[in-house]
Write a structure and sequence with these properties.
The complex is a heterotetramer of chains A (164), B (180), C (549) and D (242). With 164 residues, chain A is α+β, with helices and mostly antiparallel strands. Chain A contains 7 helices and 4 strands. Chain A has a 4-stranded mixed sheet with strand order 2-1-3-4, covered by helices on one side. Chain B has a 5-stranded parallel sheet with strand order 2-1-3-5-7, sandwiched between helices. Chain B has a two-stranded antiparallel ribbon with strand order 4-6. Chain C has 22 helices and 13 strands. Chain C has helices at residues 3-18, 30-47, 92-98, 114-117, 135-140, 145-153, 156-166, 178-187, 208-215, 217-231, 245-260, 291-298, 327-339, 341-345, 378-385, 419-424, 443-457, 463-480, 486-502, 506-510, 513-529, 534-548, and strands at residues 22-27, 54-59, 71-75, 82-84, 194-199, 235-240, 276-281, 322-326, 355-362, 368-373, 395-400, 406-409, 433-438. In chain C, the strands form 3 sheets. A 5-stranded mixed sheet of chain C has the order 10-9-13-11-12. In chain C, strands 2-1-3-4 form a 4-stranded mixed sheet. In chain C, strands 7-6-5-8 form a 4-stranded parallel sheet, with helices on both faces. The chains are: A alpha+beta (164), B alpha/beta (180), C alpha/beta (549), D alpha+beta (242). At the A-C interface, helix 2, helix 4 and helix 5 of A face helix 2, strand 9, strand 13 and helix 17 of C.
Chain lengths: 164, 180, 549, 242
């Protein structure tokens, strides 16, 4: 006889877990909703930590290793909290041809943060993106959700100074 | 190579345990047969300490770990018509290359400071400087034949040498492998 | 709904539209939006006079991204619309004031230039014209008429036949005949079948699919529904990059609108045909553009491809026959069914039919989105439509096909752009990215850039791609830094062959293409960077001597 | 899925390396080749587990087709002419092995699987006697936290046999992989030490199917690790029968 499925309790009484439950319920708590569910965890909490992954695994009846495997396969998922501000530099071909590399080097040097990492004070994350689809604005940067185009290093640093 | 003259052979050991040379000596009585056909002109095993201008076969044991190893490998390549990497250290880097997983500084510290009770000090002359990365011989000079094994057995070495003496290019894979 | 009812509705909406004197369209696609189109739209709306004389409308991509934000004014009775470029919010009052009276000359963007005149639009026919968030706009532009007519008056086989006749080939890059793919799925006896739209546009420097999804989302739904009808599927998935939030939003909205109108869902148009579409998000993995990896991802797994055969048509999503096509392919379906396969086959070349959308970018005057008939020479695209290389620099190469494609030099500029010609010269059509480079770009660096892309996007399943791309990247880095020898170059070429021939999926099999094509046309750039190595050269001399003797 | 036997399968005739063969049409090239003593090399394929098709060592040529196919995932077909050992294939396989040896730290001489390792044997069988690409020299962990077993990531070739046997035969799915590309690594549970795993039953199947010295029994010294896979065909048949 199959064992009764147990509905797990969320890791905390944070209301955001309700949103995640909505996503899972909409997909009938099926295992194939894993990526959708991880998206909604990350949208709600900003990153995926162990308790969250454990909860998702038991709610969707999936092995822990599979959840971890999927969470680390896709580059949009992050297991570490991002900085207060994010600077996403497009590294698509058009931006590359027009100097995205210099933008990354410039920010990296000034704030002492390697690409893909967050500054020690957790204030700024420097992220590379695979083409944000704004090749007409190359080189393009998305700073805290705002698209900036046709940038030179000094322009970008000025923009960053303004937000942080 | 004229008939009258013996084939000249030079050997050297770079970074390794000299086990491959011991394995060479292990061919026992076949050494006599070998000596009738070849002249070992340069080797840690013989008195000759000067590498002649041209040598028929050069045999290198050990990996390239320091500046002296590098110079020696280059010297062998310049002077030897046919160059053999003998044993896993020469062919893959093997045990000496396991230090590649650590930063060079920590390797120095471990060797000359942490494990030394009396007057720990990093040497600054008289010892050849370590290279950043330990490499197999073929990573620094072209090599003509690779004989894996740790060490290659005496039979393997005899097989390789006797085939060469018969004018054939041996295929060491028939008798040896990495770690054998 | 019957076709007559739909036509009637369309007529009704069109009459409504015609009641206004001036229609002011503001391009709200990604590029214009990020140059401030939001504010422009808002100020135009504020400045518009009360009543229905002037309609301000947010529309999808108008194509000439480098001139954005773009605004188009179409007045009743005028043949030609007026287009304004680089519009700023403070220009709104002036534009409004000029309506029906004059033209704001300092902002005018001449539409007589080749960029606009040389295009032929099928996929983008509604793009920049209709409001993508309004299904009625789509219906007024003959939208859904192909679907409704097919469902009520044609058999699935007849729909399939039109697609076969059209000669349409997959627009995702491979160029596989679409009709053949559909026929295979249609023939499968299974009770459950799926239709998937591959909207995981991952080529860096390509934004065609994004523009279609954001500018005309209903076109994709209609194409998918027609496909489902033809092959006998009742469920569809659109797998779209999470990096395209606007596209996702519009797709979801469109699905809701279409379902409410009875054009999707159970018993479409009161026929036995039922079709539901669900949007699934990617999460940042280029390899998921490969169809078997994409299906893995839809199933919630790591996006790792599996060997083919069996093909998805046989063994697809959850083991059922599955049809996978890309966005642009589906975008062509409604017009094909509406106008007939023969009409479509009359456009383009012998073996490449129809039009192709390209994203022009890089060192080129007119950056943006264009649609041209297959077979147009590369020169016409780059020099005339694209306006050539700016700042008095010299054209060096054009890259097509993204990380799977190649770099073509000036000598190849007269090449007609179609699937087979591009393949013959060592590149591919790909999904339609076209990046122009001038003499400031080093081809070794470009090859290294693409290899880095492939290395980080490799799924890691098969050895040649996982380790081969890493080692090729190392070698390219070494050569680019001026530290490589001729032995390194030889090893790189050997690796290219092994990775091409033995990799599991298309990503690995094509990853060496940028290296191979730059070596083919720009070998001297590699050779100039090599250093002499005493020993390598010695070995070569010996080999040469041996070869002589 | 590829190997599910269906009733009424036809028998087809075809050639492998110019020899005539006949087999059921649902058999794969590698099955027929191995049954007949043709040693097509492979690392990820293991009879009794699902087909993975990742090591690419088993690629073969089909006469008349420009593409190579992996023989583990391709079924035989009527009139097919297969070549398993052309010079080109030999060269490709050597390069694939070179890539594998360069990827992690395979030091045969100090490995507990020395002498019983499939990777080591394949290098010899394929004539790969030195690695021309640079070694990556990347640091990998050795996890000895489990009472009975040890995982040494330095020796892992990512064949995924451990993942498949744990999922398909044991049913625990303790193993999976994390990351992607060159950063892929096998993990237990949420990438925690193996010894802390709640899902691991300690059955040791993963150890027995591992082709190299990546998964081994605790307490084994150099060359002592023998692997025993007799259980696999039996369990696999029993599972299918259910």
């Amino acid at each position: 006889m199959p064992l009764q499925r147990i509905k797990p309790t969320p890791p905390s009484d944070d209301k955001r877990w309700k949103l995640i439950d909505v996503t899972m319920r909409r997909n009938g708590y099926a295992g194939h909703a894993l990526i959708e569910t991880l998206h909604s965890v990350q949208d709600a909490f900003g990153y995926l930590d162990d308790p969250a992954m454990k909860f998702v695994a038991s709610a969707l009846n999936l092995p822990l290793s599979k959840v971890y495997g999927v969470a680390t396969f896709y580059h949009l998922f992050t297991l570490k909290p991002k900085g207060k501000h994010t600077c996403v530099v497009c590294t698509g071909t058009a931006c590359y041809i027009k100097g995205a590399g210099e933008l990354i080097d410039g920010v990296s040097e000034k704030y002492d943060v390697p690409l893909g990492e967050t500054t020690a004070d957790r204030n700024l994350s420097l992220i590379g993106a695979r083409c944000v689809g704004a090749c007409g604005l190359a080189p393009a940067v998305v700073l805290d959700g705002v698209m900036l185009g046709k940038l030179k290093v000094d322009d970008l640093l000025e923009h960053i100074e303004k937000v942080i | 190579m004229s008939e009258s003259k013996k084939i000249t052979v030079a050997t050297t050991w770079l970074d390794g345990c000299s086990g491959c040379h011991m394995s060479l000596l292990d061919i026992d009585e076949r050494l006599i047969e070998l000596a009738q056909q070849v002249d070992i002109v340069y080797s840690p095993l013989v008195d000759g300490k000067h590498l002649p201008e041209t040598v028929d076969v050069g045999i290198i044991e050990g990996s390239v770990s320091n500046e002296e190893d590098l110079a020696k490998a280059r010297e062998f390549r310049r002077h030897c018509k046919y160059l053999i990497s003998l044993g896993d250290c020469a062919v893959t880097g093997n045990v000496p290359a396991m230090r590649n997983l650590f930063p060079l500084d920590s390797v120095y510290d471990r060797a000359y400071q942490e494990n030394v009770q009396h007057n720990p000090l990093r040497p600054n002359d008289g010892v050849p400087a370590l290279l950043d990365v330990v490499k197999p011989v073929h990573a620094v000079v072209p090599v003509d034949l690779h004989v894996p094994g740790c060490p290659p057995s005496a039979d393997t070495i005899w097989f390789v040498l006797s085939q060469l003496l018969e004018g054939r290019v041996p295929n060491p894979n028939e008798v040896t492998r990495f770690g054998a | 709904m019957h076709i007559d009812e739909l036509n009637e509705l369309a007529e009704q909406i069109r009459t409504q539209h015609q009641s206004c004197q001036h229609c002011v369209r503001v391009c709200m696609a990604a590029s214009c939006q990020s140059s401030g189109a939001d504010d422009v739209l808002k100020r135009l709306e504020d400045a518009a006079p009360e009543g229905d004389q002037v309609q301000v409308k947010s529309v999808g991509c108008m194509g000439l991204c480098s001139a954005g934000p773009l605004v188009e004014v179409r007045s009743r009775g005028d043949d030609q619309p007026i287009m304004y470029q680089h519009v700023e919010s403070q220009d709104a009052e002036e534009i409004m004031g000029s309506l029906g009276d004059s033209v704001v000359q300092r902002l005018e963007c001449p539409t007589s230039i080749p960029f606009f005149q040389r295009q032929q639009k099928i996929v983008l026919e509604n793009s920049g014209i209709i409001d993508p968030e309004d299904i009625e706009d789509y219906i007024a532009a003959d939208g859904y008429s192909a679907l409704v007519e097919a469902l009520t008056e044609s058999s699935p086989a007849e729909v399939l036949n039109e697609v076969n006749l059209s000669g349409l080939r997959g627009r995702g890059g491979g160029g596989y005949p679409t009709g053949l793919k559909w026929s295979t799925v249609a023939k499968m006896p299974a009770t459950q079948k799926y239709v998937i739209c591959n909207a995981d546009e991952g080529d860096p420097g390509a934004f065609m699919d994004r523009a279609v999804l954001e500018s005309d989302p209903h076109r994709i739904l209609e194409g998918m529904a027609l496909a489902a009808y033809a092959v006998g599927a009742n469920r569809g998935y659109i797998y779209v990059r999470a990096e395209y939030p606007l596209a996702i939003d519009r797709l979801k909205k469109s699905i809701r609108q279409a379902t409410r109108k009875g054009l999707l869902g159970a018993n479409v148009c009161d026929t036995p045909f039922s079709f539901d579409i669900e949007v699934r998000l990617g999460a940042g993995a280029f390899v998921c553009g490969e169809e078997t990896a994409l299906m893995q991802s839809v199933e919630g797994e790591r996006g790792q491809p599996r060997p083919r055969p069996p093909y998805p048509a046989e063994l697809g999503l959850w083991g059922f026959p599955t049809l996978i096509n890309n966005v642009e392919t589906y975008a062509n379906i409604a017009p094909i069914v509406r106008n007939g396969g023969e009409w479509f086959a009359s456009i383009g070349t012998e073996r490449s039919k129809g039009t192709k959308v390209f994203a022009l970018a890089g060192r080129i005057h007119n950056t943006g989105l264009i649609e041209v008939p297959m077979g147009v020479p590369l020169r016409e695209i780059v020099e005339e439509i694209g306006g050539g290389v700016p700042d008095g620099r010299r054209f060096k190469a054009v890259q097509t096909g993204g990380p799977s494609g190649g770099c073509l030099p000036a000598e190849q500029m007269d090449l007609p752009v179609d699937y087979d010609s591009l393949r013959e010269v060592g590149s591919i059509m790909g999904s339609g990215g076209m990046i122009v480079m001038d003499e400031t770009s080093s081809m070794v660096d470009v090859a290294r850039y693409f290899m880095e892309f492939c290395m980080t996007e490799s799924c890691g399943k098969c050895v040649p791609c996982r380790v081969g791309t890493y080692q090729m990247h190392e070698l390219l880095t070494k050569i680019a830094a001026g530290k490589g020898t001729s032995a390194d170059l030889a090893l790189l070429e050997e690796l290219c062959e092994v990775v091409q021939m033995t990799s599991l999926c298309g990503l690995g099999q094509t990853a060496p293409n940028p290296v191979v094509s730059t070596l083919q046309y720009f070998r001297h750039e590699y050779e100039e960077k090599l250093i002499r190595d005493e020993f390598v050269d010695m070995e070569q001399q010996t080999e040469e001597m041996e070869a002589v003797s | 899925m590829i190997q599910t036997p269906t009733p009424n399968v036809r028998v087809v005739t075809f050639k492998i390396d110019d020899r005539d063969f006949s087999a059921r049409e649902d058999e794969t090239i590698i099955q027929v080749a191995w049954e007949n003593g043709i040693r097509v090399p492979s690392l990820c394929y293991l009879e009794g587990l699902s087909v993975w098709g990742a090591c690419r060592l088993c690629v073969v040529e089909i006469v008349g087709s420009p593409r190579l196919v992996s023989s583990c995932s391709t079924r035989v077909a009527e009139g097919m002419e297969i070549r398993t050992d052309s010079e080109r294939l030999q060269a490709y396989r050597r390069m694939i092995l070179e890539l594998l040896f360069s990827e992690r730290n395979h030091v045969c001489s100090v490995c507990v699987s020395n002498g019983h390792c499939e990777l080591q044997n394949l290098a010899q069988q394929c004539g790969m006697d030195h690695v021309r690409v640079p070694y990556r020299n990347k640091v990998y962990q050795v996890d000895s936290s489990h009472d009975l077993f040890r995982v040494d990531h330095n020796r892992c070739v990512l064949c995924s046999r451990c993942i498949r046997v744990c999922d398909e035969i044991e049913g625990a799915h303790t193993w999976d992989s994390k990351g992607r590309g060159i950063d892929t690594q096998v993990i237990t549970d949420l990438n925690r030490p193996w010894g802390e795993s709640d899902s691991c039953t300690g059955c040791g199947k993963c150890v027995q199917v591992c082709p190299t010295g990546a998964l081994v029994q605790q307490g084994t010294s150099v060359g002592e690790m023998h692997k025993d896979r007799k259980f696999l065909p039996y369990l696999s048949r029993m599972r299918d029968a259910q």
